[in-house]
Amino acid sequence: MRIKYKITLFVSVIFYIVFLLFSQAFSQEIKKPTLVQAVICEGMKDRIPQNQAAVFSISAGKIFCFTNFDPVPEKTVIHHNWFRTDILNTKIKLVLNPPKWSTFSSIQLRESDKGPWRVEVTDSEGTVLNMARFSITD
Amino acid sequence: MSAALNHILSFLLTIRWQDIADIALNSYILFRLYILFKGTKVFRMLIGIVLLWFCQEIAFSLRFIVTSLVIQGITAVSALIIIVVFSNEIRSVFQAKNLKAILWEFPRKTIQTPVEIIVDSIFEMARKYCGALIVFPGKDDLKEIIQNGLAWDGLVSKEMIMSIFWYGNPVHDGAAIIQGDRVTEVGVILPLSKRNLPASYGTRHRAAKGLTEVSDALVVVVSEERGSVLAAKGTRLNIVYDKEELEKELLEHVGIQVRQQGNRKERLNLCTAGLICMLCVTGIWFAVTRGLNTMITLEAPIEYMNRDLGIKIVSAAVSTVKVHLSGSDILIKSVRPEQVRVKIDLSVAMIGHNSFPIKKENITLPPGIILTKIEPDMIEMEVEAPLKIGIPISYVNLDPALEMINTSASTVYLHLSGPDDIIRSVQPQQCQVKADLSKAVSGPNTVYITNENIVLPPAVTLKKFEPDMIEVKVGALISKELPIQADWSGKLDERFILTDVKISPEKIPVRGNRRVIENLSTIYTEKIPLESIEKSGSVSVKLAISASEIKIAPDFQNKADVSYEIRERIGNITGNE
Fold it and tell me: The pTM is what?
């Protein structure tokens, strides 16, 4: 009788540990921000992207990567990784605050920046959340 | 004592079989010369020359300057004198005898002279007072001495001899010559002696004396007046009183031994002569080969033998070899530089670096000369084919799932030979070197190049190639699905904005080297010009990929359809927050 009690106690502890691990993992999963919009645009006005496009002239002088997260469960950071061809050109760290957050990064355009680009939006762990492709031309 | 024995033993051990054969051969030659010229004036002259030479040596050792020079001069011209003066006798010796007689036969008459018949005839003529003059030639040639002979060639008989000298016969005044068992000539005129002879001697006696003074012939005279018989030989002219005496004289002259004792004496003479010949030659041999030991050093050029016409010597460490020689003083002094030859056999020479040891077998020396040292004892040389050409390696039969990463060599150097005109015109494009990678696996591989992998123009021979083995590193190809991105260029009209781009297919599977594929995240299109774009549309464009590094999956094409959306711009180009 005593042994049966011990076995029951041991199994209960194991179940509890497993439950804790799963609940922890689940709680981490749901704490990730959700990206609802990622666009490349010529400008920002009232936190709204202006002239979203896939091709930008060097004469624009500056371009923006706008990202909108909803919800943002907790304060976290994301990265805007600007790649020209397959080479990382700029990595910009941005802070997200709950409950929802829009943020943007920008790069100054130079003559040598012409070519195909992409911006990878990654979370704090480096997971790619979205990717926006565009070109910089004359 | 033991030291002396050891010395003798060591000396005997240095004698080769060739030395013994050398002495034996020359002894025999000397002995045969003795046999051939024995009893002739030539032989006596030769003996005289030897004695002169001996006297010269004595005079030289005693430092008699003039005597030595005079004898030396006489000896020097003696050989010439012999040849000129005694040319007839020398010729007769060699002409009269066949090869067998010259080489090994002893002087025995095969045709015996019928002495008894001749003696009987002579004494019969003496009894009848019938004058006669009979010549028995010796070894000297009489042709130059006698004259007007009438060829007879009749078999000797008593009746014939008596009929020749019968006073009614037209030839009875001359001499008859008997050789062997035949009367060869009759009516022969002999030279007359100019010496003072007794008054009782007539013309026949003078003629007999005249011939024997200048030859080794025996002449028998029958006096017509007194019926006496005389025998002339050399300087003597004796009266022969009975048949036995004449018979003995004749037998001795023609070489037939009268008694057994005479035979033994003759054999003893021959043995003695042979022994003396052998001692003389042995002495000469020792003087020549075992004289004062002298050493010299000669520099001999190296001769290359059996050189393959398809190779050429590019460089050799040395062109001459120093050869240290020793031997007797006489032999060493007689060595001429051209007699010393250093030969290197190039039949085993390989293309590239070669080392040939120089051994005793490579050096040709005159007999009796001993090689003591060779410097250097090794020759280094570089050998090449007439043409060396570098051909890029073509790698064939590689599994499509694999790719070559790197190799230890990209070029194989071919050493070619052939006719000059063809070799000069060979171009690298005419040659091929194929490396078979059919058995290559992922990772490092060793691939051997063989003659079968090499293609050459006709009439060209492959002597060597290098390297014959290459290390090839092969890697497996990996596949990856990559997104396609349009690569725009030029300038879009400022009135428009290109808002959206869709590419079909969006992604494309590619395969390639791990190193390339892993670093690749996007496949770009070729440049798409923007200048002419004013409204939405689509364009088909090729993908900008390197075919040598990246392969597109078989189901896909190397192009993509790019659809784009154009809208008119509202406001300025730029706008900042």
Answer: 0.40
